[in-house]
């Protein structure tokens, strides 16, 4: 009888471990997807803020900025304007005094002279 009791306990432990594994295999992808969605939303908010800063820069200087340092004056203090997914810098290009682009290195979108690709 003692051997069958040990086998029963072992079987119960295995069932619990397998149950936890199944639950985790369902939850982990959902959590990852939620985080990616939050990163995309934050990234797009930051690109929109950069676009507003570009407009303010143009009002003062007559041209669009081609780098983040030129826009910092128009951005919230202490904010780090990089893609939240991996911390890479946005691609900021000023073509001339009438056109600029702000692109995410992780393909979350692009802003072309105030028009967002995700809307």
Descriptive notes:
The protein is α+β, with helices and mostly antiparallel strands and 119 residues long. It contains two helices and four strands. The protein has helices spanning 2-61, 68-71; strands spanning 91-94, 100-103, 110-112, 115-116. It has a four-stranded antiparallel β-sheet with strand order 1-2-3-4, with helices on one face. A hairpin with a 6-residue loop joins β2 and β3. It is rod-shaped. It starts with a helix and ends with a strand.
In the predicted model, the low-confidence regions spanning at least 5 consecutive residues are none
How many beta-strand elements?
4
In whole angstroms, how far apart are the ends?
69 Å
H and E string: HHEEEE
Q: What would the average pLDDT be, to the nearest integer? A: 91
DSSP helix fraction: 40-55%
**Strand ordering within the main sheet:** 1-2-3-4
Structural class: alpha+beta
Biggest sheet overview: 4 strands, antiparallel
- The proportion of strand residues reads 5-15%
- What is the overall silhouette? rod-shaped
């Amino acid at each position: 009888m003692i051997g069958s009791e040990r086998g029963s306990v072992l079987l119960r432990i295995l069932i619990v471990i397998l149950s936890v594994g199944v639950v985790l295999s369902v939850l982990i992808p959902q959590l990852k997807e939620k985080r990616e969605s939050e990163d995309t939303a934050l990234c797009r908010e930051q690109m929109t803020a950069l676009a507003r800063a570009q407009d303010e820069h143009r009002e003062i200087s007559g041209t669009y900025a081609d780098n983040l340092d030129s826009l910092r004056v128009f951005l919230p203090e202490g904010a780090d304007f990089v893609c939240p997914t991996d911390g890479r810098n946005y691609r900021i290009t000023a073509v001339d005094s009438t056109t600029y682009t702000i692109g995410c290195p992780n393909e979350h979108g692009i802003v072309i002279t105030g028009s967002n690709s995700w809307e």
